[in-house]
Amino acid sequence: MNKLLLILALVAGCSRQEARVRAACEKAAELCAGEGATPINIEQCEEAATSDRKRLGDERFLNGLDCMANAKSCGAVVDCVIEADPAE
What we know:
Structural class: mainly alpha
Number of helices: 4
Oligomer: single chain
Largest sheet: none
Number of strands: 0
Shape: globular
Distance between the termini: 45 Å
Number of domains: 1
């Protein structure tokens, strides 16, 4: 029973993480759509974000997602990405 609860907790955590990534990518796509920027492909954004998580570490990754989700402009989204990953 304990193993089942652990598995369910891990799946729920992954689902929440995926939802946060999708929300951040959708927000970025929405904000940058009308500003002459290259349209953001949400699926590619999600794949890139997921691969960056290991490289950035959880704290920087989650802070970047929160920043993107709360951004008010395309420029703010770009700032969030730069802040989360200054090496890029």
